[in-house]
Amino acid sequence: MAEVDHLAAERATARFDVEEMKVAWAGSRHAVHVADRMARLVASDPVFRKDNRTMLSRKELFKDTLRKAAHAWKRIVELRLTEEEADLLRQYVDQPGYVDLHWGMFVPAIKGQGTEEQQHKWLPLAYKFQIIGCYAQTELGHGSNVQGLETTATFDPKTDEFVIHSPTLTSSKWWPGGLGKASTHAVVYARLITEGKDYGIHGFIVQLRSLEDHSPLPGVTLGDIGGKFGSGAYNSMDNGVLRFDHVRIPRDQMLMRLSQVTREGKYVHSNVPKQLLYGTMVYVRQSIVADASKALSRAVCIAVRYSAVRKQFGSQDGGPETQVLNYKTQQSRLFPLLASAYAFRFVGDWLNWLYTDVTQKLEAKDFSTLQEAHACTAGLKAVTTSVTADAIEECRKLCGGHGYLNSSGLPELFAVYVPACTYEGDNVVLLLQVARILMKTVSQLASGKQPVGTMAYMGKVQYLMQCKSAVSSAEDWLNPDAIQEAFEARALRMAVNCAQNISQAASQEEGFYERSPDLLEAAVAHIQLIIVTKFIEKVHQEIPGHGVKEQLQALCNVYALYILHKHLGDFLATGCITPRQGALANEQLGKLYAQVRPNAVALVDAFNYTDHYLGSVLGRYDGDVYPALYEEAWKDPLNETVVPEGYHEYLRPLIKQQQLKLSRL
Ligand SMILES: CCCCCCCCCC/C=C\C/C=C/C(=O)SCCNC(=O)CCNC(=O)[C@H](O)C(C)(C)COP(=O)(O)OP(=O)(O)OC[C@H]1O[C@@H](n2cnc3c(N)ncnc32)[C@H](O)[C@@H]1OP(=O)(O)O
Ligand SMILES: Cc1cc2nc3c(=O)[nH]c(=O)nc-3n(C[C@H](O)[C@H](O)[C@H](O)COP(=O)(O)OP(=O)(O)OC[C@H]3O[C@@H](n4cnc5c(N)ncnc54)[C@H](O)[C@@H]3O)c2cc1C
């Protein structure tokens, strides 16, 4: 804990129990305790130092990542950490690397798509790091369109093998994390061809590198695809390129849980939906939603603390300067992001519950909730990552000039985070998936089919298409029923409008194509409704701790009314509310900001982040920002010498030349 707490006065104004809010944020007392222990373990270990990361060359950074991953594994084994503890330890190490893909995609792909026998063979090797795996799906020519992948896996009945081949340049695998330099194995997605017939995309376990000397196996060409956006940042990851020249693998390395190829080469598809092939992506999308709240809360924590420390302009009578956090504009930009961090946290928890529930149903061969899982994971992944990426950049601006310094932590956070809008499904492509499901649901309403799950509100179509908001004062917007109804009516009316417009087109497909910009907005409205609903449900639960429920209630209202204000056009155009009701919502929002203000610093303290994890001189717990900024500047390699390298070559001759010219005048 800091010796001088420059934020003590801020902390003293909090009207709630911060320790209890930590529990509400983390999910349980146990979760707070474990996270705290793992965060401190990482922060106190010099190997996990990261303050010099943006100054390392790519090669140094990659080696540093290998070192940290190996050290993390050593600590996990030495301390016999549980899976939960190990996941948290890796999170706090906070450096993207091959292990993310090994644990996050390679292992889940084998678990989800491998038979019991295959799991028995491969998982123990992966669990002990005797092999390192990645997820090789995307190709140079195709990423979003998975059915368009070109790599082939042709069964050869003579040898009982598959022949994995990259027939074109565009079929080169391109992007898989961990592939470039670290992985020994990959789950490769390729078109299965047997008995002369193409059966589409399937997963195969393929060894890429020797387990003796790490050299590529015969027929395998692979490497790193090159530097990426931002210094440090995602450049710690070896995203790779991979080509196969007729590489042979045994038949039993096709992942055969969903479909099989027999010894004779017969293709057999189990009686399960084909989309289960996409199961690993669904799993990762739900974990990306949980990660969004982590990234967003880090940025918000930095911006809130710094805004409380930073002062600009005096009062009218020449008194002390004003904390920038007191400016209403700063509050109206920052507090919705604070509320969004909490909203994403709770919707992430709910999504994790949904995912677990769907997985259990799938085990019991009940596929009825597959569409719901797909729509929710795809849509929430898209909305939460887009908002978070924009919000990190907004937090940088909220920190003024100092936010642009690497030492603020924000440039690196942004550069690491922003590809989340693209990987695991481009956000637009994913929202169009949600829109397709919305259109299908609307079209089924006429036949009386009752929508279920997060689409259930559409069943109230008669009411929601004509209801009028009863709000007549700013306070009325504090009523969760008023918010819920307005959001439901907006989402449904936008979807129905789209469906009506599509029905006038020559074909459903053409209508969908023409109306896709509107469909995106309808999908966003539906997803925002889910986030608002889950926040309202959370606040309805019993929440212990002095003032905790009240603060969450205020944040829930901030989130909902901010979205309403931002998307006012939708609410007005669909006739869900009147312009006057829109103005009242904005009035209430201003009152809520004033309510949040004295609690703001404590609300970010509740995230319980160590200074190491935050990695920001601006976001320091003690608020002692200026000495830290000053000290940090001197650590830059440019300041290693007083006179810079290159002075004698380029600066001195220039200056001397000018002096000579002047002396001649
Ligand atoms: C502590 C552990 C933490 C773990 C976290 C680790 C995180 C590590 C993070 C590391 C960082 C980066 C890693 C990145 C990895 C990657 O990017 S991997 C590659 C990801 N690629 C994509 O996401 C591709 C996106 N494209 C697609 O998903 C599909 O191509 C698309 C859905 C767009 C279209 O597919 P089609 O087969 O053409 O299907 P379509 O005709 O549109 O639909 C047919 C039918 O199927 C339904 N559907 C589609 N997808 C799914 C699904 N996933 N699940 C269930 N159902 C699905 C769709 O709704 C249609 O249904 P209908 O009833 O027939 O209408
Ligand atoms: C950092 C990073 C890590 C990655 N890691 C992995 C990995 O480990 N394994 C792996 O297999 N892949 C990985 N990927 C690849 C990633 O999954 C793809 O890049 C992603 O799915 C997007 O596909 P794409 O690149 O083909 O984009 P494209 O589909 O080419 O997108 C280009 C543009 O076209 C638009 N677009 C595309 N289709 C449509 C449509 N139907 N309607 C409207 N607009 C459309 C998109 O919105 C986008 O604006 C990674 C990518 C990144 C950036």
From TrEMBL:
Species: Zea mays (Maize)
Acyl-CoA oxidase C-alpha1 domain: residues covered: 278-439
InterPro entries documented for this protein: ACOX_C_alpha1, Acyl-CoA_ox_N, Acyl-CoA_Oxase/DH_mid-dom, Acyl-CoA_Oxase/DH_mid-dom_sf, Acyl-CoA_oxidase, Acyl-CoA_oxidase_C, AcylCo_DH-like_C, AcylCoA_DH/ox_N_sf
Ranges where the Acyl-CoA oxidase C-terminal domain occurs: 479-656
One Gene Ontology MF term: acyl-CoA oxidase activity
Main location: other
Keyword Oxidoreductase in annotation: yes
Keyword Oxidoreductase: yes
UniProt name for this protein: Acyl-coenzyme A oxidase
Subcellular location field: Peroxisome
Matches recorded under Pfam families: ACOX, ACOX_C_alpha1, Acyl-CoA_dh_M, Acyl-CoA_ox_N
Gene that encodes the chain: LOC100382424
